[in-house]
Structures are given as C-alpha cells and as structure tokens.
DNA sequence: CAAGCGTGGAG
DNA sequence: TCTCCAAGCTT
C-alpha cells in the first residue's frame, strides 16, 4: 500500500492541477525546437525519433533522423530495403539492434497496418522494439492520445518533485507507475490536449532543468513545490552502478559492426578475428599513401602499422583501426562475431561477413 | 528480473 | 583524464 507515494501530501492543497499549468507554461516558452515536435510531424517521424532516442542524446539523433526522413519518409520505404541498409544508415548512434527492430517494425506496419503507424498503445506495443515507454510516447506525441508517458526524465522529476528523493529507484516500480497516472491531468473536453502537453513538458523539464547530474533548480518553474528541495536535497540512497566499457563485449561488437558498416563488400571472417591486437604507438591508422593492398593479419608488413585486408577503402580505415586496438585472435573476438551473427546484425556468406541482406 | 546491449558529449 | 549517463527493450 504505497499510499504515501501514490498520494503525496506535498501536492495539497493545490493538487497536481497547480503543477500542470506552470509546467506546461514553462514548456511553451522553453521547449527545444525539435523537428519531430513540429506541426508538420508525422507518426512515422515520431516513431523513428523515439527509436533513435532510446538511450541516445538528442543532439546525436538530429542529423541521422533528418537523413532517415529524407530517405524513408514512409514506413514502406524502409520496409522495402534490406535490413543492412537500416544498419548502415544508423551510423554510430549505438545499439544497432534498434535499427534492426525499427526495420522489422516498418515491415510489420506495412503487412498488418496498411503502411500506417498504428495509434493505439496495444498495437504499438506489439511491434518489435516498442516497449511500454515508446508505445505511450508515440500514441501521445504523434496521435494526441492521453497516455501516461513515463521515461527516465519523467521518473526523475516525479521522484524529486513529489517523492522528495534525489533519484528514482533503480528499477521502475508499480508505485511509480501509479503515481505517474495520478499526476496526469484529467482528460477533459479538450480531448486530452493538456495530458499530452503534460507528458512532453515534464519530460522536457527533466531533460533541460531537472537533470540527473547538476539540476538547474534556479530555472525550475515548480521549485517552490519541490519535495526534494523542501527536504534539503538529500543525497541518493543508493549508488547507481556504472556501465563498464573497456574490454567488454559491447566494445568489441561495436568495433566489429563499425568495420562491417564501413565495408561495401563482405569481410573475410579471418580478418575480423585476427586484425592486430594493438596499434603501435605513434602508428598512423593509414600509411600516407593509403592502403597498399598488402593484406595481413599479424602486422607483418611492419611493426609500426596495423594491417587490414586488401582493398580496404580509406574511409574504412578508422573502423579497422578501432578494431585493431582490441585484443585479437582470442575467444572474445570469436564469441562477439558469433553473437552479431546470431542477433541478425551480421550475415555470413561464402565471401565473408557483411551486414544482413 | 538483472544483465546485456553502443556511443560520444559533458562535467 | 576518467566517470557518468542519455526519450529503453529484450531475454
């Protein structure tokens, strides 16, 4: 019975209604001018943005999103392409399986929804790569449905504003979901317009003001109502566990994918697995004259430069250099390559490994 | 359900 | 430099 969490006394006597107007008003004059929020936005554009924004900052998404919209203005356009094209166009946004899932979702939309992004939470949730947040976000932002949207920004704002904590719990709780639902404006005769605005506004507040690291409380429109500030800004009661990176499979997988993205032709498996485990200090990723065609997998062309397969383009050299800095010839390389193949992020044919068809 | 999955800008 | 972490999803 987390009654205290569901109905916080901090909200009395105004109730949440007092917050709705202030936060949405703040949003009206402080929101970033993002293309997927523009009046001419499309449901597909919103959907693409939501996929790209899963764990990736806005500034890095913007240019890629524009390319995607220009190339694939409708789901059908993407659905007609090989999955590898989606992966290549994904560039370095990270978590490339999102591109794979977005591609699969586009195909599903063509097959089951007449090429139109579905509007209902349930239909959206059934699409690959669409979870609770993304389904609610698309339904709300693209179609104006009064869904309760809860992302990491909104969770943090709620935790501080009405929960009095520095950070939300490590895992999303049912009590949080209940509280988020109760904080939603009542869908009135406006058809949920205020609810829709509230979703976007709280999210933006979390992204711009009520940030994780150094919140800019001086700019907060509801500072006087903040339970966390009222409590004297207590420290988090737990230590967020960091994400390891160096030496992880993710690093190796990323480097392997980088090489595949940069290669027009299939890459011999052997090259992927055994490119030198270290780029000698001071060594240039590419010899001054560019690749000379001297393929090698042990750096035998010289101690001061890495090796890559014959025919490697200059554009692909940086990707090979990143891979070359990682341990080679070991179990990890092989395991990671197998993982990419198993995940459908890569495909192996007679000529070698490439992005999937 | 905790763990795994990419990347690079900011503090 | 090094750590943190950003509009999550899947298994």
TrEMBL record:
| Pfam families, per the entry | EndIII_4Fe-2S, HHH, HhH-GPD
Keyword Thylakoid attributed? no
Q: Which family does it belong to?
A: Belongs to the Nth/MutY family.
Substrates-to-products reaction catalysed = Hydrolyzes free adenine bases from 7,8-dihydro-8-oxoguanine:adenine mismatched double-stranded DNA, leaving an apurinic site
Q: Which cofactor does it need?
A: [4Fe-4S] cluster
Look up the EC number in the record and give it: 3.2.2.31
Any idea which UniProt keywords this protein has? 4Fe-4S, DNA damage, DNA repair, Glycosidase, Hydrolase, Iron, Iron-sulfur, Metal-binding
Q: Where is the composition biased (Low complexity)?
A: 274-284
User: PANTHER family annotated for this entry?
Assistant: ADENINE DNA GLYCOSYLASE
User: Cross-referenced InterPro entries, in alphabetical order?
Assistant: DNA_glycosylase, Endonuclease-III-like_CS2, Endonuclease3_FeS-loop_motif, HhH-GPD_domain, HhH_base_excis_C, HhH_motif, MIG/MutY
Q: Which residues form the HhH-GPD domain?
A: 52-208
Q: Indicate what this protein is called per its UniProt record.
A: Adenine DNA glycosylase
